[in-house]
Amino acid sequence: MRVGLLFGSFNPIHIGHLILANYMATNANVDTVWLVVSPQNPFKPSNSLLHEYDRLHMVRLAIADNPDLGETDIEFRMPKPSYTIDTLTYLQEQYPSYQFSLIMGEDNLATFHKWKNYEQILQYHEVLVYPRPGSAPVPEGLKNHPKIQVVSAPLLDISATFIRGLLKEEKSTRYLLPEPVAEYIQAKKLYL
């Protein structure tokens, strides 16, 4: 089983995440895509994050009707902040017959050399890169790496930050959020 891993805060999960995950699951060299809900990103402040279980629940609501997508809360049981190499190692131990690929935006590839043990990630895992608007140039050593594959996924410039701003101002998020996620946010009065 070839599993693509799309890491994120998913604060909240939105249509951009879902389009990307589904595109990768059906067009990249993987059988399925798991959305890895990160409790804390080491590169982002955590003060604006909803509780991890709310974010996980919204991911489950969003992908419930798509058999090509799954989710995991694996990082909830790991030391924080979460480092990708540690998560990949743990998943490989839990699922030794699976082949895990890392899905990342082109913007992250520019700073990939700063990630903890990035060489080890490239040694054992394929990295599937999708385009991001306004990305910095990719470092020369990574441009033609045999484990890095650029996937021509749709270019989407939708951010959770933008959506949180709309929610705070009580403006419409129609078509930006999956309906079950929008209903959950409204029912719990999140992001106000």
UniProtKB/TrEMBL annotation:
It catalyses: nicotinate beta-D-ribonucleotide + ATP + H(+) = deamido-NAD(+) + diphosphate. It holds the Pfam family CTP_transf_like. GO terms for molecular function: nicotinate-nucleotide adenylyltransferase activity. The keyword Cell inner membrane does not apply. Its EC number is 2.7.7.18. HAMAP family: NaMN_adenylyltr (MF_00244). This is Probable nicotinate-nucleotide adenylyltransferase. It comes from Rufibacter roseus.
